[in-house]
Amino acid sequence: MRKFEKHFLDEIKKPVKKLDAFSVNVKRYFTNGLGVQIDKNTLPANLKMAMPFYLWQKFDMDGGFKVAQQILPPLPPWVFAYSYIQGAAFDYFNFSSLGTISSQFKPGDLICVFVDDITNINYMAWVVVNCPFQAYSSLLLGNNGGDYIGGENAGIEVYEILYGCDNTQQYNEPLHLLSTNRIGQFTDEQAQPLSFKTPETVLNDFITVKISFEINYMFGILGMMQFNSELLNFNHKIKL
């Protein structure tokens, strides 16, 4: 059998992938140092700024997202404090009668906490990644013996994203597509949502961002959530 014939047969024998989709939301809340949720407009002027969000990557497990923050750190005076999965780690505010912010979280949410001063906390920003119909942490870790999505037993492929937000100015913020290897070397490519805003790629205020990638623990989507934005939605179109 000639080589090209074998390649053709190998291709047609591959299982047909099913097209599907799932959504990931990014929300942001502000509290005082006691975890009491506050109106963002009451923040001091020097704290009214965009906040970073980090999707998918698990570069150093649930630690400080070191590589991601080299590319897109919080803007001073905000600093990264810690992150955790709701329901899988202890956080004081989940058990504090004062910490009203905990009512906003659902099991499986990924929560990144930023503070205005790491030694004398006056204000806190909570950037929350969740999925409307499933736990984000389950998608992140996968359900195949602990494999990450995109691992040997998963094979989740994203072929485009419907990107929507409640603030049209948010589309001015580029999305960073960050890939790393096992020793921490990385590449940072940027996708500008407005470059995809054509009559063919806009539906109900969602922009179809035509980027393709495999979700795994060495890939992440990073961005800055503008101060006037309240909700970002990433509807991933996938092949299973």
Low-pLDDT stretches = 143-153
Head-to-tail CA distance between termini = 31 Å
Q: Determine the fraction of residues in helical runs and give it as a percent range.
A: under 10%
Mean pLDDT across all residues, rounded?
80
Radius of gyration: 19 Å
| Shape designation | globular
* Number of domains as seen in the coordinates: 1
N-to-C order of helices and strands = HEEEHEEEHEEEEEEEE
Largest sheet: 9 strands, antiparallel
- Judged by helices, strands and strand pairing, the structural class is mainly beta
Strand composition percent: 35-45%
Number of strands: 14
Separate helix tally = 3
Architecture overview:
- The protein has 240 residues and is mostly beta strands.
- The protein has one domain (17-239).
- 10% of the residues lie in helices and 37% in strands.
- Strands 1, 4, 5, 6, 7, 10, 11, 12 and 14 form a nine-stranded antiparallel beta sheet that branches. It has a four-stranded antiparallel beta sheet with strand order 2-13-8-9.
- The radius of gyration is 19 Å and the shape is globular.
List the helices and strands and how they pair.
Layout: H1 3-13, E1 19-32, E2 51-55, E3 59-62, H2 66-71, E4 79-85, E5 110-115, E6 123-130, H3 136-141, E7 157-165, E8 175-180, E9 186-191, E10 202-203, E11 206-209, E12 213-214, E13 219-225, E14 231-239
Antiparallel strand pairs: 1-6, 1-14, 2-13, 4-5, 5-6, 7-11, 7-12, 7-14, 8-9, 8-13, 10-11
Keyword list:
240 residues; mainly beta; 9-stranded antiparallel β-sheet
Structure, briefly:
By secondary structure, the protein is mainly beta. 10% of the residues lie in helices and 37% in strands. It has one domain (17-239).
